[in-house]
Structure of superoxide dismutase:
Amino acid sequence: MGLGREMEKLIDRLPSFSPPSSSRRKFASSYRPIVMESYLKPLPFEMDALDPHMSKQTLEIHWGKHHRSYVDNLNKQIVGTELESMQLDELLKFGYNNANPTAYFNNAGQVWNHDFFGNSIKPEGGKQPSGEVLYLIKRDFGSFEAFVDEFKQAAAAQFGSGWAWLFAKKTDPLVEKNFAKLAIEKTHNAVNPLILGHIPLLTIDVWEHAYYLDFQNRRADYISTFIDELISWETVIARLARAKKFLNFYDVVVPLDQYEYL
Ligand SMILES: [Fe+2]
């Protein structure tokens, strides 16, 4: 059964993504040039739509100044170089350079992360997810409340600037029962789970520019508001649907007539 037109449209709107295994197909001719990819994408809601949980002023500065400057600086760094021919997600994996980041890495990472963050929130969001996302959260964290506690802890514990993520990670099938599961991690500056070989599903920006106008130094209140009022679980559901094309979250079922090959 298909995902449905609304879900396919939501998936199309997500920032570009390719699975970890293809991370070195960097100069494929079918890729859109990064200068086309890396424009300032509009937020999927009006600037005042998240008020009072995230103010219009915060979004105007966060999206209109910070996000815009990452886009502008990245394009300045790569224009006229071979890097222009790479997709944004490929460029930031390439630029991470085995933890010896290149000069353009921070801008590439911040453009991707902010696009991802903008789609992680929505007006009248938050509450609890349903369906398979809730099932996997309960399976991999014990309960929804345990997930919330761990996510809050990661976001609060990130020292200085960075992000906290819910993501899908491959597991070692010799050690764990399933081949993929959900996990939470914090990252510093522009680093994200994608460059570490995982598939991001949700993020919160914990750079001070994301919350200082609305919450000043009360990062914990910002994190609670993000969880209770802002998370777009519809986007997480769409991202999980896409992740399932690359990862198996369940036991591998061997057809009966294949047992002789084991
Ligand atoms: Fe930010």
